[in-house]
Design a protein that fits this description.
The complex is a heterodimer of chains A (about 260) and B (about 270).
Chain A: H1 2-36, H2 41-52, H3 56-78, H4 87-125, H5 128-134, H6 139-177, H7 182-192, H8 195-221, H9 226-259
Chain B: E1 22-33, E2 36-47, E3 51-56, H1 62-69, E4 77-82, E5 85-86, H2 92-99, E6 102-105, H3 117-127, H4 133-146, H5 162-174, E7 180-184, H6 192-209, E8 212-217, H7 220-226, E9 229-234, E10 237-242, H8 244-249, H9 253-260
Parallel strand pairs in B: 3-8, 3-9, 6-7, 7-8
Antiparallel strand pairs in B: 1-2, 1-4, 4-5, 9-10
Helix pairs in contact in B: 3-4, 3-5, 4-5
The chains are: A mainly alpha (about 260), B alpha/beta (about 270).
């Protein structure tokens, strides 16, 4: 009984590290390909549209309403202490450092990661990836590289957009709905929000983008068992990417906080 | 009592190194999938310009064998020589030049569903670096004429019938004029008339481009129509190899059952 328990744990641990290793190998293969093989510009631009342009609505709504809600909730608590004008600083720093990158990453995972995994997975089960290989085209070059480069460019821009809309929405809620003094609001926000907060947010965005693209592409490339397999791969891509974003976010926060300490200095 | 017909080129010639006239040579190829032995020591040789049909029951490992020949699957042991080069153990990137010599028609066509017929057929040319739109258009037109699908350039794969998909897949695999074409069940799932047109198309390609062909099929009409020689794959090994006439003359019950489509229970 105990032996079986430890055996099950051992198998799960080995599977996890094997999975992790394969994703890392895919990432390494992709970066080698980026530097050594020609880029398919058409595919790259199509992915920029798919990831960057078509995610606008999702990101704007996520950023805007998160900023608005966060400003309102912060005001309700801070106002009891007579610190209503500090709302701007709190909203701004929180959105730059945490809410912007994490929520954007989760939304992009749901919208783009799922699509990537489903598309590549369908290609796998319908022998289209075998056809690519048979036509002397390496699937990593054709499928993963354009998506990775597009994600590396789009994700920081999407997060910046999310941060911008969050701050603006927070401002409008605080000033026009909750009657916070606009001058103090802006002054506190500018005083407490530093360039390092923005750099931290964008650094996270870049890392999350890579996590999403590699996990989603890996799940797609290893899809099996027809339509059911595509469904499983898509679900797994979204779940794995979301969990990875949340877990990596903690370690990135700790690491980046050493490099870019929070607060006014 | 199993009768094995003599076939010096296929069976007897397997122990020697592939000579300059063999396009494909397979030695002692073994493959297990999920603890099941699919290929149990395949020995095979296909001469340049020859058409070999591999027949056998569904699920007998024909497609697995075909995929090994182009490096889409890795064997557990054995050698695969394509045009004088052993491809076993080569990386995906090192396989690319060999794959450009070999075209493959997948069972379902394996067309890229996001591309039009024209873009599917032009795909290998564009990937090879051809940028001249006129050259691409002209070659795509030629290929569509070969497969008798003129005027279908702008159609999407989803709007094509099974037979049309196979024709487009074939056009895509021959546009760079490979020296060898592998066909995976080219007539399966097609009605007899479309099957016949595919058989004629395969024959036409042989005479027009002088390519080496390997056709994997369980359709006997297809095999007899296109093949110079036929190999029967049974339980992971080449059970018989010879000319279509030799196959027909065989008195081996296993082969006779397969030829007339009789199950073991009816013997």
């Amino acid at each position: 009984m105990i032996g079986r328990f430890f055996s099950a744990i051992g198998i799960a641990v080995i599977r996890f590290f094997s999975y992790l290793g394969e994703v890392v190998l895919l990432a390494a293969d992709t970066f080698v390909s980026i530097f050594t093989h020609r880029l398919r510009w058409k595919l790259f631009l199509r992915q920029i549209v798919e990831i960057g342009l078509l995610s606008q609505l999702v990101v704007v709504i996520t950023g805007g309403f998160t900023g608005a809600v966060f400003a309102a909730q912060t005001y309700f608590q801070f106002n009891k202490l007579g610190m209503g004008s500090a709302v701007g600083a709190v909203v701004s720093v929180a959105i730059c450092r945490e809410l912007g990158p994490v929520l954007t990453a989760l939304m992009v995972t749901g919208r783009v990661g799922a699509a990537m995994s489903a598309e590549i997975g369908t290609m796998k089960v319908t022998e289209q990836i075998d056809a690519l290989r048979a036509l002397a085209v390496y699937p990593v070059d054709y499928l993963v590289v354009p998506r990775t480069l597009a994600m590396m460019i789009s994700m920081p821009l999407l997060v910046a957009e999310c941060i911008g809309f969050g701050i603006v929405a927070g401002y409008f809620v605080a000033i026009f709905l909750l009657d916070v003094n606009g001058t103090y609001y802006i002054a506190n926000m500018v005083r407490w929000t530093q360039m390092r907060d923005i750099i931290m947010g964008l650094t996270k965005a870049f890392c999350f983008g890579l996590i999403i693209v590699f996990i989603s592409c890996y799940r797609g490339l290893t899809t099996r068992e027809g339509a059911v397999g595509v469904g499983k791969a898509t679900t797994q891509a979204v779940v794995d990417s979301s969990l990875a974003v949340l877990i990596v976010n903690f370690f990135l926060t700790m690491l980046l906080n050493i490099i870019f300490p929070a607060g006014y200095q | 009592m199993i009768e094995r017909l003599p076939s010096p080129d296929l069976v007897g010639g397997l122990q020697r190194a592939p000579n300059g006239t063999s396009m494909i040579a397979v030695r002692s190829l073994m493959k297990k999938i999920a603890h099941q032995e699919i290929l149990r020591g395949i020995d095979l040789e296909v001469q340049k310009g020859e058409t070999l049909a591999i027949i056998g029951r569904s699920g007998g490992g024909k497609t697995v064998l075909l995929k090994h020949l182009i490096g889409l699957m890795l064997p557990d042991s054995g050698e695969i020589w394509i045009d004088g080069q052993n491809i076993v153990g080569l990386s995906e990137r090192k396989l690319a030049p060999i794959r450009s010599k070999v075209g493959i028609l997948f069972q379902g066509g394996a067309l890229f569903d996001s591309l039009t017929v024209e873009d599917n057929i032009a795909f290998p040319l564009r990937e090879a670096g051809e940028r001249d739109a006129k050259v691409i258009q002209q070659k795509v037109g030629e290929m569509l004429e070969v497969v008798e699908l003129e005027g279908s350039e702008k159609k999407m794969p989803v709007n094509l019938s099974g037979g049309m998909k196979k024709r487009v897949g074939l056009a895509r695999s021959i546009i760079r004029q490979p020296s060898c074409i592998l066909y995976d069940e080219p007539t399966s799932g097609l009605d007899p008339i479309v099957s016949d047109s595919i058989n004629q198309l395969i024959r036409r390609l042989q005479t027009r481009f002088h390519v080496t062909s390997l056709v994997v099929t369980h359709d006997m009409k297809n095999a007899f129509h296109v093949a110079d020689r036929i190999a029967y794959l049974h339980e992971g090994k080449i059970y018989f190899a010879g000319t279509p006439a030799e196959l027909e003359r065989s008195t081996d019950p296993l082969i006779q059952n397969f030829l007339v489509g009789r199950s073991d229970a009816q013997i």
